[in-house]
Amino acid sequence: MSELNACGNTERKHTFISCWHCNEHESEAMWKLYSTNVKNAIAIQTTYQQLYEALDKDSQIEIGKVKYIDFSKSFSSINGAFWYKRKSFEHEREVRAIIKSQQAHSGIEKAVDLEKLISAVYIYPYSPKWFEDVVRDVMEKYNLNKPLYYSEMIKNLSINIPFKSFIG
Which three-class secondary structure string do you get for 25-39? Predict the structure, then answer.
């Protein structure tokens, strides 16, 4: 059993994962999980195909959806361990891009084509107006001509901020 644990630990050390949320609509739960202490947050919208193309269709990178299972009734295979999570995380609706490298130890830098990757940028619904200005300035500085929206959750707020704005 210790050999199996050692192999699993080695595999984890050489596996690098980029996680994405996959949903037709925005998730209040995800905003709360990933921006609770960061009131000035953004989310980028992309698709599976755009992610694949933005990563230059690199055959070393596997992209797929996580499967959520009840580990008391099922288990993941050793080779598929990075593609399974407990059922209690199902709200994450996660897509992962996974790459393995024996040479890397703390991360892998990978060039990404932002024009191909990004469909739109969304601003956290409770961010102040100055943050929208900062995001807009950064997008203009890097010639990122993509739509810039406030989160759709802003519809429920009674403050005077434009619902949608576009760069360009």
Answer: CCCHHHHHHHHCCCC
